[in-house]
């Protein structure tokens, strides 16, 4: 993070934005000394503002929020509370923690209780300091407390002092009725690798140790609490390291004892953010021989001759008194009815709080963007973007490349005169910016209709995005070019004439690993009401932006027209004021030469709220230029009518001439630009133990599993920490046991229901020995359960069996064909087809004509499946639709047994989905187990969504598509109508869509992952489509049709366009299909030719991986291996495709046919497509193509009001 000297004031005037809450006074002077050699109450005062950091204040009722930015790029924020503690997040109501410790939030409790300062005597002070003298004192305390450790030299410190604080309860009063008061101090000293808490209690500073909470006397607390820790299914309270007990003596002992070798001084190592995972106390509880107490400590300190060491064997430390400035925190007891921007004259506040980037590029080059360079200057260093990129050097984006902004919106908004606010939280904001046109599209989802229409006039919620990426007139710079992607924008909107006020705070947090700019937006206040059903028209407007040091300001008045449902119109107005604060680098000339004023021109404004989708959309075109207008916009680059590719930058020439140049990371003529695959060009560019992932216009380096980025954020180093064996899959629990993490590297194994043992070894319980079934039933023991089945001639559920059984459809069919029996048995008509029934009376999946020798597949009703008939001597491969009688007794529940993290294989086997964990590329067969039981179902296709950790499957017994979370949960039906025989299924995890084949309807269909927006993509020239694969990063779709007369493998774009046949020669029964994006290889398994083959779809080269395989059905690729299911071997087989050999085989205990198989990745494969952000700007289906996307409508488009577009 690049920092510069921070200027809080442009002159002697400071501007505060006060929210409608009680606020605090700040900036007073007081004498101060801290970390003194003699810890008596009169000596314990406060550190004062130095030159080491910047403190930002967010004002609240009884605490303040402080964000501290360190020179070495480390930062953290916390809340200082008058109740004697510092919190790592905004505290909840004190009713949730007073007398109810530990709290739900992270806390450093110096001495926590029901304290207050409202009587004007008690005060709370804080400051941040990196001065050498203060850091030296902190280092002495730390090194004295940990004498066996390496010497510690902190680089920054924050000091909080509670002076003369008292409580509301009677316990703080003495015999004379005078309130008792406590004084104590907390110092957080940090360096790059860890932090320390130093807590100081003066000998006469603790006057009371308990207080009343309600009617209960509660002992005060000191210690460290991590607060709630989020788990897989819920949040639990994290570690709580308490340094006192429920004995009042333990509180009084804080001023008399130590863990640092100095009375009243307590030192703890608390780690890095998040704190308090492993609190380590100081190691020196012994007290040295102290000097005699002085009656007048101030006089003692001012007399240099009187200073003496606290313990003889250590050097004397002199702490001279000094006067400096100090920030005080105390509540002001009134609340304004109409909060507004207040300007405060305050000469006390230092204009230059600290000097940033004092180092050189030699040690700080890694802090610049990978598309930036570091330059040394006389007073420090700065980062600059290289040619072809723009930004502040820390964050750089390619010129001309479209940008995406994502984030969350929170709000508490009153509408009109309503007395009740509309509240919303964590709703999505997505934006797509066509940079070479200055056009920004913004959508905010899930907005209640009670507030959505009234936010339509506030197009400037998205206006800051337009300013950041505005089209630049020559010589002028948009926001991102100047300050990058980390800044805070605060705005106040005043609606006229009602004087409704809305405060907007937006924190832009930089670019994430997907190259998306992240923003958090908070709306609070009141807006003028716009009735539902009205329309808004906003005229073009201009804003003048003023640039000064680290602050940018603008203001304007805007008119808009509201057309009501009755056709009447109202012209309304609001005033807009905003400030943008950021941290720049002033060593170079970039910010110094910044133009003091620029004008932002905004036109082509669009705003609409869709109540059906609870979605508000904004669109606007922004340009930045001279406040005097400058040259006319005749150049196509400035009008947006240039025709350059969306991934190209338009370069202004003389007059109306211009050129199109592809953005960095793309190649082409500027009219058409194509992504460069940097990872393929240089596979080793990320270094050892790292993986290179290509992205549009760029690439991203990721560390391999077991490694993490070092301090330079570029080199992958091995992770050395306690291992959660349950999560890592390295435990020794039985496959039939549950592994439970127990902290550190330990775990507990517990046998699953239906098994018995110690967890390391679990044996199946044979329920059949307990005579659980009816006397006329047969009991079948299974792993973890059992089934009961009535004997032949009986019917029932196995618990109750009655003589006789109604004839099945197949048996009736067979008897009708056979007719009446003659003296020699049944006499069927000559040449008639006689159906074959299984032991349960159901149709066998394959039927043959005894006279002609033809065979074909049938469904569960005995109807022939089109395209499956074979000639004499050949047999089709048919799917068994029958699962036998349903199991009874304690059969498995239809939910998911949670998988341990890591990469797994998921495969379908009749009525269940099983998994095999992968260790590298090896199948961990001993850890294989079923994860989903669906009795009476036949599951065919399996696919995995790595984003939401969902497994999707197709089922043909009651044709449907369903899903379930692999981390545990009930199955959910996604599509249950309009299907006949769904088989193959594929997921686009980027565009959030799914594709499937229906071999009865002979078509390929697409839908959103929730089952909405269904659309038939392909419905011609298909006979038996089965396997289907999506390649989201490249926008391609692949499928196989095993039609015996003309088998083929085809492809198209994901929108169904550009359909073509890839392979039609030398195919038999191409069942399995998979695509490996890393090698760009499409592979298939053929049960007819008994071969496994691969090809590059772009080049057409075809190669054989393996021959003489038997009956493959499904297949999936992971790394060097291909895994496929085989009907004849009832197994999952691993094939090393580079060595062209089988490397392993896994046979489940249940020996039945295996169907589809998929890879459940530990993390999503790298890549992006044009639909991965904001649904590509589409209203319904966004379907990627290699060079863009298509916005498609569902088949019921007439009902949903959809418009199709192509990009």
Automatic annotation (TrEMBL):
Q: Which InterPro entries match?
A: 6-blade_b-propeller_TolB-like (IPR011042), Cueball_EGF_LRP_Nidogen (IPR050778), EGF (IPR000742), EGF-like_Ca-bd_dom (IPR001881), EGF-type_Asp/Asn_hydroxyl_site (IPR000152), EGF_Ca-bd_CS (IPR018097), G2_nidogen/fibulin_G2F (IPR006605), GFP (IPR009017)
List each copy of the NIDO domain by range.
Answer: 110-273
Question: What positions does the domain EGF-like occupy?
Answer: 633-674, 675-717, 722-763, 764-800
Give yes or no: UniProt keyword Calcium: yes
Give start and end residues of every LDL-receptor class B repeat. 949-991, 992-1034, 1035-1079
Q: List the disulfide bonds.
A: 848-855
Origin species, per record, is Astatotilapia calliptera
Q: Which residues form a coiled coil?
A: none
Q: Give the GO cellular component terms, alphabetically.
A: basement membrane; plasma membrane
Could you confirm whether the keyword Repeat appears in this record? Answer: yes
| MF-aspect GO terms | calcium ion binding; Wnt receptor activity; Wnt-protein binding
Region of interest (Disordered), ranges:
286-306
Q: Name one GO biological process term.
A: cell-matrix adhesion
What protein am I looking at? Nidogen 1a
Which of UniProt's keywords are assigned here? Basement membrane, Calcium, Cell adhesion, Disulfide bond, EGF-like domain, Extracellular matrix, Glycoprotein, Repeat, Secreted, Signal
Where would you find this protein in the cell?
A: Secreted, Extracellular space, Extracellular matrix, Basement membrane
């Amino acid at each position: 993070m690049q920092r510069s000297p921070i200027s809080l004031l442009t002159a002697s005037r400071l501007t505060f934005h006060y929210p409608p809450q009680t606020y605090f006074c700040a900036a007073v002077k007081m004498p101060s000394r801290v970390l003194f050699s003699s810890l008596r109450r009169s000596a314990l005062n406060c550190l004062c503002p130095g030159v080491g950091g910047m403190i930002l204040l967010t004002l609240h009722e009884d605490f303040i929020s402080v964000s501290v930015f360190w020179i070495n790029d480390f930062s953290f924020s916390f809340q200082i509370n008058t109740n004697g503690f510092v919190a790592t997040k905004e505290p909840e109501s004190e009713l949730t923690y007073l007398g109810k410790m530990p709290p739900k939030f992270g806390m450093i409790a110096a001495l926590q209780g029901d304290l207050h300062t409202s009587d004007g005597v008690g005060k709370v002070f804080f400051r941040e300091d990196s001065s050498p003298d203060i850091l030296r004192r902190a280092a002495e305390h730390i090194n004295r407390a940990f004498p066996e450790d390496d010497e510690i030299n902190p680089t920054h410190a924050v000091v909080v002092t509670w002076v003369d604080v008292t409580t509301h309860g009677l316990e703080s009063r003495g015999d004379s009725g005078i309130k008792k008061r406590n004084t104590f101090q907390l110092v957080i000293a940090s360096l790059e690798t860890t932090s320390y808490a130093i807590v100081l209690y003066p000998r006469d500073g603790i006057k009371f140790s308990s207080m009343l909470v309600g009617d209960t006397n509660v002992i005060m607390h000191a210690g460290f609490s991590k607060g709630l820790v989020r788990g897989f299914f819920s949040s639990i309270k994290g570690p709580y390291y308490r340094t006192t007990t429920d004995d009042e003596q333990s509180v009084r002992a804080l001023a008399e004892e130590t863990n640092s070798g100095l009375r009243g001084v307590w030192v703890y190592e608390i780690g890095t953010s998040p704190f308090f995972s492993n609190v380590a106390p100081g190691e020196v509880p012994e007290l040295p021989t102290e000097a005699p107490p002085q009656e007048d400590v101030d006089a003692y300190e001012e007399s240099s001759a009187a200073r003496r060491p606290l313990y003889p064997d250590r050097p004397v430390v002199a702490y001279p008194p000094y006067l400096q400035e100090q920030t005080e925190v105390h509540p002001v007891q009134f609340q304004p009815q109409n909060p507004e921007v207040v300007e405060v004259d305050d000469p006390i506040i230092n204009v230059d709080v600290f000097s940033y980037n004092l180092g050189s590029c030699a040690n700080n080059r890694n802090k610049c963007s990978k598309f930036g360079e570091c330059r040394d200057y006389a007073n420090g260093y700065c980062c600059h973007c290289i040619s072809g990129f723009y930004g502040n050097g820390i964050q750089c984006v390619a010129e001309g490349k479209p940008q995406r902004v994502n984030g969350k919106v929170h709000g508490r908004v009153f509408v009109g005169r309503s007395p009740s606010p509309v509240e919303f939280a964590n709703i999505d904001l997505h934006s797509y910016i066509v940079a070479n046109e200055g056009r920004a599209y913004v959508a905010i989802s899930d907005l209640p209709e009670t507030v959505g229409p009234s936010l339509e006039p506030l197009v400037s919620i998205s206006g800051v995005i337009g300013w950041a990426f505005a089209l630049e007139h020559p010589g002028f710079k948009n926001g991102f070019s100047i300050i990058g992607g980390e800044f805070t924008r605060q705005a106040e909107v005043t609606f006229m004439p009602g004087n409704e006020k809305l405060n907007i705070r937006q924190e832009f947090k930089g670019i994430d690993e997907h190259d998306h700019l992240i923003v958090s937006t908070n709306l609070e206040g009141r807006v003028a009401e716009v009735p539902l059903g009205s329309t808004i028209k906003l005229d073009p407007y201009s804003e003048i932006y003023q640039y000064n040091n680290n602050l940018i300001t603008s203001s304007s008045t805007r008119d808009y027209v509201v057309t009501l449902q009755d056709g009447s119109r109202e012209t309304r107005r609001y005033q807009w004021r905003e400030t943008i604060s950021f941290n720049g680098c002033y060593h170079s000339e970039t910010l110094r030469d910044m133009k003091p004023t620029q004008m932002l021109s905004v036109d082509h404004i669009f705003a609409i709220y869709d109540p059906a989708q609870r979605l508000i959309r904004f669109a606007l075109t922004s340009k930045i230029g001279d406040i005097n207008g400058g040259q006319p916009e005749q150049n196509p680059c400035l009008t947006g009518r240039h025709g350059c590719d969306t991934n190209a930058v338009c370069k202004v020439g003389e007059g109306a001439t211009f050129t199109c140049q592809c953005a960095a990371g793309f190649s082409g003529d500027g009219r058409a630009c194509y992504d460069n695959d940097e990872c393929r060009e240089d596979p080793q560019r990320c270094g050892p133990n790292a993986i290179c992932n290509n992205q549009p216009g760029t690439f991203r380096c990721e560390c391999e599993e077991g490694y993490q980025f070092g301090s330079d954020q570029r080199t992958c180093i091995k992770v050395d920490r306690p291992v959660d064996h349950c999560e890592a899959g390295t435990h020794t629990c039985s496959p039939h046991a549950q592994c439970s993490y127990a902290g550190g590297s330990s775990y507990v194994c517990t046998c699953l229901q239906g098994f018995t043992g110690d967890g390391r070894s679990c044996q199946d319980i044979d329920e059949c020995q307990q005579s659980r079934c009816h006397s006329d039933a047969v009991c079948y023991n299974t792993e973890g359960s059992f089934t009961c089945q009535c004997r032949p001639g009986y019917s029932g559920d196995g618990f109750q069996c009655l003589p006789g059984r109604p004839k099945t459809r197949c048996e009736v069919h067979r008897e009708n064909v056979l007719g009446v029996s003659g003296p020699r048995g049944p006499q069927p008509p000559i040449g008639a087809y006689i159906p074959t029934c299984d032991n349960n009376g159901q149709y066998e999946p394959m039927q043959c004509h005894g006279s002609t020798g033809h065979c074909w597949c049938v469904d569960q009703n005995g109807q022939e499946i089109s395209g499956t008939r074979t000639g004499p001597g050949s047999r089709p491969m048919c799917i068994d639709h029958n699962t036998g009688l349903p199991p009874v007794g304690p059969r498995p529940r239809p939910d998911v047994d949670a998988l341990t993290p890591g990469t797994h294989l998921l495969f379908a086997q009749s009525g269940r989905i099983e998994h095999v964990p992968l260790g590298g590329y090896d199948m961990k067969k001993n850890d294989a187990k079923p994860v989903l039981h669906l009795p009476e179902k036949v599951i065919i296709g399996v696919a995995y969504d790595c984003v939401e950790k969902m497994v999707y499957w197709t089922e043909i017994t009651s044709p449907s598509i369903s899903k379930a979370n692999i981390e545990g949960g009930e199955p959910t039906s996604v599509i249950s109508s309009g299907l006949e025989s769904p088989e193959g299924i594929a997921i686009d995890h980027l565009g959030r869509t799914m594709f499937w084949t229906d071999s009865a309807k002979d078509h390929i269909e697409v839908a959103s992952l929730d089952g909405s927006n269904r659309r038939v993509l392909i419905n011609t020239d298909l006979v038996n489509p089965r396997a289907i694969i999506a390649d989201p990063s490249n926008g391609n779709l692949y499928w196989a049709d095993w039609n015996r007369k003309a088998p083929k493998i085809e492809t198209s774009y994901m929108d169904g366009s550009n359909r073509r046949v890839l392979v039609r020669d030398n195919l038999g029964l191409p069942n399995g299909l998979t695509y490996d994006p890393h090698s760009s290889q499409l592979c298939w398994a053929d049960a007819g030719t008994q071969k496994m083959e691969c090809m590059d779809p772009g080049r057409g080269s075809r190669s054989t991986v393996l021959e003489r395989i038997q009956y493959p059905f499904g297949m999936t690729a992971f790394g060097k291996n291909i895994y496929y299911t085989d009907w004849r071997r009832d197994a999952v087989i691993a094939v090393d495709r580079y060595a062209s050999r089988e490397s392993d085989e896994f046979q489940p205990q249940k020996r039945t046919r295996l169907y589809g198989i998929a890879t459940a990745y530990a993390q999503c494969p790298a890549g992006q497509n044009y639909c991965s952000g904001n649904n590509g700007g589409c209203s319904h289906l966004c379907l990627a193509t290699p060079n863009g996307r298509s916005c498609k409508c569902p088949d019921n488009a007439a009902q949903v009001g959809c418009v199709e577009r192509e990009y």
